[in-house]
Design brief:
The protein is an alpha+beta fold and 486 residues long. The chain has a domain of 127 residues: Neutral Protease Domain 2 (Neutral Protease, domain 2). The protein has nine helices and 24 strands. The strands form six sheets. Strands 1, 2, 4, 5, 8, 12, 14, 15 and 16 form a nine-stranded mixed β-sheet that branches. The chain has a five-stranded mixed β-sheet with strand order 18-19-20-22-21, with helices on one face. Strand 10 and strand 11 form a beta hairpin. Helix 2 packs across helix 3 and helix 3 crosses helix 4. The longest helix has 18 residues. The protein starts with 13 loop residues before the first helix and ends in an 8-residue tail after the last helix.
Length: 486
């Protein structure tokens, strides 16, 4: 994400319809979707739950304890939504393919708002309850540890985006005059589909999105076949076959002008802009092409099947690195923002965090990429940018917030971006360019489509450089105050 930077209900069986369309602080402790079950069952549990186990209502991130869920690991989402911008009404059917990581007599999904009409587990109707943003599911038969299972949820209503405080802004499924702007970081996926809404559970996605004829629906990955229009409505089917965290999923829709092609490096490129920004269509297309191809030489092969970007007319005040389709909310992005969001395709999208406190591994890397792009373009060296930032006096706010431990109440603090980038440049100074750029490529290759922690990055940097780097990372990432020695 480029935070705060502007120009600076009938049930339809989705599984059958889509078919084959088909973090840590300095301790480095990490989590997985295989989090332990909570203790005890509420009195409302039905008799069949006796002796069973309950999937935890949170995935185990202490800073966001209600996000995600324990007891299962999602492999695949099949999202079918029908949205009418005039009424702001969404009808949805979400199909989930998952694997239990413990015995389950009950499990949760994250869903904000909506009326839920029906839930099935393995094709059999399941009882369910609502508890805030938790959708609590009681399968007719308990699910055994390691067993694969399917869930289908039918729901409808008006999506309500999250109106965050501080620097989070408004996010999630955001209705616009002609459609919707969908950017979900950090936990806004639950505003439009039920699931395991935390980055620690990646999955593959299929999308079937129906809108009034004349509108375009955009989602992650690739368009599957040509859009089909019937009865004044058009259906678009998209597929993202690479693992993706939930906050990167999008179903942005409205009136768009599109340009398609292929980068010089052979990567399909799709750019879409609201008509208000038609003058920026070619510029965004060309810049996305150049940046993607250049990052492929710096960070390693591009990890996904296509690149590009979307400019919508919602004044979000930010950009978001939605996988394969970065979103720019209500502005023409400059080179710095485009280079930042496309760097995220490696750092944050392919390589993902399991706890939000490790956010510098996304934002610090993408911010440093801005410095590298400027250096590549002859617009000033990364060293000069580092020195300019470092010149801030010892009382500057950036020195009061160690970026290695992002705070839940101030997640997108500038220090996570800028001081995170400075950490990487301090490392580059210490180990030299040959080792530093080898480190970046090795890091992205070793953890492609997986998860990363700060301790893993420190260990790899020490292994490749042959240097002891604890002090450098401690003073830059975890110690309040302006670093003076490293």
């Amino acid at each position: 994400m480029a935070s705060g930077r502007l120009a600076t209900a009938a049930t339809v069986t989705l599984l059958g319809i889509l078919g084959t369309v088909a973090c840590s602080a300095s301790s480095g402790e990490s989590i997985s979707v295989r989090s332990p079950a909570s203790s005890g069952a509420p009195a409302s549990n039905p008799p069949h739950a006796a002796g069973g186990r309950i999937g935890a209502a949170g995935i185990g991130d202490p800073d966001f304890p209600n996000d995600g869920n324990g007891g299962y690991d999602v492999d695949h989402y099949r999202l079918k939504i029908d949205y009418d911008p005039a009424s702001k009404h969404l009808s949805g059917v979400t199909g989930i393919e998952a694997k239990a990581t413990q015995d389950l007599a009950r499990f949760d999904l994250d869903l904000s708002g909506f009326e839920v009409g029906r839930i099935t587990v393995n094709g059999t109707a399941a009882r369910f309850e609502r508890a805030g943003d938790e959708l609590v599911v009681f399968p007719a038969r308990p699910i055994s540890n390691r067993a694969a299972f399917t869930v289908e949820v039918t729901y409808a209503g008006e999506p309500k985006p999250v109106r965050g405080s501080s620097n989070l802004g408004t996010y999630g499924f955001i209705p616009t005059e002609d459609g919707a702007f969908v950017a979900c970081q950090p936990n806004g996926a639950k505003t439009w589909f039920p699931g395991n809404d935390h980055p620690a559970d990646k999955a593959r996605y299929d999308f079937e999105i129906t809108v009034p004829a004349g509108l375009t629906a955009l989602a992650n990955g690739e368009l599957v076949g040509a859009p089909k229009t019937a009865g004044g409505r058009t259906t678009f089917v998209w597929r993202e076959s690479h693992p993706m965290v939930s906050y990167l999923a999008t179903a942005t829709l409205g009136r768009f002008e599109l340009r398609r092609g292929t980068t010089a490096g052979g990567i399909p490129n799709l750019v879409a802009v609201d008509p208000r920004y038609r003058s920026g269509l070619d510029d965004l297309y060309t810049l996305s092409e150049k940046v993607t191809d250049y990052w492929s030489t710096v960070f390693g092969p591009y990890p996904f099947s296509s690149t590009g970007g979307v400019i919508d007319d919602f004044s979000a005040g930010y950009a978001l690195e939605n996988q394969t389709k970065p979103m720019y909310g209500g502005f023409d992005p400059d080179e710095g923002i485009v280079s930042h969001e496309l760097a995220h395709q490696w750092f944050g999208d392919s390589l993902s965090i399991t706890r939000w406190r490790d956010l510098w591994l996304n934002e610090g890397f993408a911010s440093y990429a801005e410095w590298l792009w400027a250096e590549h373009q002859g617009q000033g060296t990364a060293e000069r940018t580092f020195r300019s930032r470092y010149s801030a006096g010892p009382e500057a706010a950036i020195w009061k917030y160690p970026p290695g431990r992002a705070k839940p109440e101030d997640l997108f603090n500038n220090s996570v971006y800028s001081r995170g980038a400075m950490t990487l440049h301090a490392l580059r100074q210490r180990i030299g360019d040959p080792v530093f750029f080898t480190l970046l490529k090795t890091w992205t290759a070793q953890h492609k489509y997986g998860y990363v922690t700060t301790d893993e990055f420190v260990a790899l940097a020490e292994t490749l450089s042959g240097k002891q780097l604890d002090k450098l990372f401690e003073v830059w990432l975890f110690t309040p105050g302006k670093p003076t020695e490293w």
